[in-house]
Design brief:
Blueprint lengths: L3 E13 L10 E20 L1 E4 L4 H8 L5 E9 L9 H16 L6 H16 L5 H8 L2 E5 L5 E5 L6 E6 L6 H11 L4 H15 L5 H17 L5 H12 L4 E5 L6 E6 L3 H10 L3 E4 L5
Parallel strand pairs: 3-4
Antiparallel strand pairs: 1-2, 2-4, 2-5, 5-6, 7-9, 7-10, 8-9
Helix pairs in contact: 1-3, 2-3, 2-4, 3-4, 6-7
This protein binds (3R)-3-hydroxy-3-methyl-5-(phosphonooxy)pentanoic acid.
(3R)-3-hydroxy-3-methyl-5-(phosphonooxy)pentanoic acid binds next to helix 4 and helix 5.
Length: 287
C-alpha cells in the first residue's frame, strides 16, 4: 500500500433520454471536459476532507472508500455541483480510482464502474448509473441500465458543440425521479417517446440541424412529465433565439442546466452574458 493516491472522474451531460432511462429505455450521455480529482494522503489522526464542497454526503461517500482514521482527502473539481452535470458521479469515480491507486491496483472501466456505483448511491438513492458510466469511459455513449448495464461507446460527435446555461438553481435528482414515478402511468407514453428519440438522435449525430429538432422535442416531453421549470424554459428560449439548433434541460431538471446545441458557441455565450446567465462551453471529455 502506498502513502498517496490520486484519481479523477469526468462530469457529464445527457444529450437525450434522462428519466426514461430509469425505466429501461436507452439514453445518450457524454463526458465533458470538466473533472473532479481526489488525492488521498496518509496523515495521522482522524480522516479529514479538504474540499470546496465539504458536506455530509461527501463525507459519507468518502467513508465507502477510506478508513475513518489516517487520511487527508483533497477534492478539487470544476464540475458544478447540483446542476445535472454529474458532480457526484465524478467524485465517486475519482474516489475509487484514488483508492485503487493507493492499493497499487489498475482499474479498468468496468471495475471502476462497479466500485463507483454504490458510492454514487449515497447521493442519489437508485441512479440509473449513466453518469458513472460516462465518467469512467469518457466520450459519448449509449447507455441502458441493467446488471450489468449495456454501454455502447459511440464515435466522438463532430460538427457541433454544446453550451451549458446555468439556471442558478440546484435540482434534487431523487425527488424528481420520485415525482415522475408518482405520475405514472399517465406519463408512460411521454417516457416511451423519449426512449424512441434516443434512437433517432443516435442516427443523426452528425446533422446538427436534425439533432437540434430532436432535442427540442426532448425538452417538450420533459416539460410534459413535469420536470422543467419556468427558468429552464426561459433558458431554452434564450438559446434558441441566439441561434442554437436546439436546447433542452439536461439531467433531472427542477434546476440545473440547459444544454444548447450550437455550431459556434459565441452568439449563445454573448446572449447569456447580456442576460446575466452563467454559461459554460463544454467539449466532449476523453477519459
Ligand atoms: O441530474 P442528474 O445528473 O443526477 O441526472 C439524473 C438523470 C435521471 O435520468 C433523471 C436519473 C438517473 O439516475 O438516470
Amino acid at each position: 500500500m502506498s502513502a498517496r493516491g490520486v484519481g479523477h472522474g469526468l462530469g457529464k451531460l445527457v444529450l437525450c433520454g434522462e428519466h426514461a432511462v430509469v425505466y429501461g429505455h436507452p439514453a445518450l450521455v457524454f463526458a465533458v471536459d470538466r473533472r473532479t480529482t481526489v488525492e488521498l494522503a496518509r496523515e495521522p489522526g482522524p480522516t479529514r476532507v479538504v474540499s470546496h464542497a465539504d458536506d455530509a454526503r461527501v463525507r459519507e461517500a468518502l467513508c465507502a472508500a477510506v478508513e475513518p482514521e489516517g487520511w487527508r482527502v483533497t477534492v478539487r473539481s470544476d464540475v458544478p455541483v447540483g446542476r445535472g452535470m454529474g458532480s457526484s458521479a465524478a467524485l465517486a469515480v475519482a474516489l475509487v480510482r484514488a483508492r485503487a491507486d493507493v492499493d497499487g491496483e489498475a482499474l479498468d472501466a468496468d471495475e471502476a464502474f462497479r466500485r463507483a456505483l454504490p458510492v454514487e448511491r449515497v447521493f442519489h438513492g437508485n441512479p440509473s448509473g449513466m453518469d458513472v458510466a460516462a465518467s469512467v469511459r469518457g466520450g459519448l455513449i449509449r447507455y441502458r441500465r441493467g446488471d450489468p448495464p449495456d454501454v455502447e461507446p459511440l464515435p466522438a460527435p463532430t460538427g457541433w458543440s454544446v453550451v451549458a446555461l446555468d439556471s442558478g438553481e440546484a435540482g434534487d435528482t431523487a425527488r424528481l425521479v420520485a415525482a415522475v414515478a408518482a405520475r405514472r402511468p399517465a406519463v408512460d407514453a411521454a417516457l416511451d417517446r423519449i426512449g424512441a428519440l434516443v434512437g433517432a438522435c443516435a442516427g443523426c449525430l452528425r446533422d446538427a440541424r436534425a439533432l437540434g429538432e430532436l432535442l427540442d422535442e426532448n425538452h417538450a416531453l420533459l416539460r410534459a412529465i413535469g420536470v422543467s421549470t419556468p427558468r429552464l424554459d426561459a433558458l431554452v428560449e434564450l438559446a434558441r433565439s441566439a441561434g442554437a439548433h436546439g436546447a433542452k434541460l439536461a439531467g433531472a431538471g427542477g434546476g440545473g442546466v440547459v444544454l444548447a446545441l450550437v455550431d459556434d458557441p459565441a452568439p449563445v455565450l454573448e446572449a447569456a452574458r447580456r442576460a446575466g446567465v452563467t454559461a459554460l462551453p463544454c467539449a466532449v471529455g476523453a477519459a
